[in-house]
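Forum > Structural Biology > Help requests

Title: Can anyone predict the 3D structure of Phosphate propanoyltransferase?

Hi all, first post here. I have the sequence for Phosphate propanoyltransferase but no way to get a structure on my laptop. I'd be grateful if someone could post the structure tokens.
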Amino acid sequence: MDNINSKVDYIVDEVIKRITKNMTIPVEISGRHVHLSKESVDILFGEGYELTSKRELSQPGQYLCHEKVTLIGPNGSFHNVAVLGPTRSRTQVEISKTDSRLLGVKAPVRESGDIKESASIVISGEKGVLMIQEGVIVAKRHLHITPEDAKRFQVKDKELIGVEIISDRSMILKNVVVRVNENYKTRIHMDYDEGNACSYEKGTVAKIIKYEGNKL
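Reply #1:
Sure, ran it for you. Structure tokens for Phosphate propanoyltransferase below:
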């Protein structure tokens, strides 16, 4: 009987482990980077220049470019800043709060694309320099998720959720914005400030936590 009970306990433990694993989401962190408009590409790299892909990123259609730029703020600068493609309708610079202080710019925490009245900065490229009057933000942590996974995890587009980062320095992060799209790959994105705080390593995963007042 003890032997049977032992086998049952083992099977139950294995089932729980598999269920738990299937209900976690991979976490990725992103460093400072720039999304450029076609007009900005022309100024920084020359008229008619086309960005060139170095490698694909986890989100379909997005890629890291060979091209780099320099960000110049009132208090400092960052060289060899990554450019991500393809081009966008408006130029956007995404940095961390630590970067913001080092550069001397007041970048607000915003969702990607929400750049109205955000911070300004100077961007330098191989062929030219430009100053954007707005466009510098600290990206709000977010969850890219497919419609199928959204149903499985019971989350909705634009919902605010909490996530528990599973690591040797585990922590719970609230106000994670859900973005549902059939073209996404399900991933949680945060920046290096947040990644360092929770001892992020490649392969880190997180669990979704629902809480009251989780609507935008």
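Residues 2-22 form the longest helix (21 residues). The chain is about 25% helix and 40% strand.
Shout if anything looks off.
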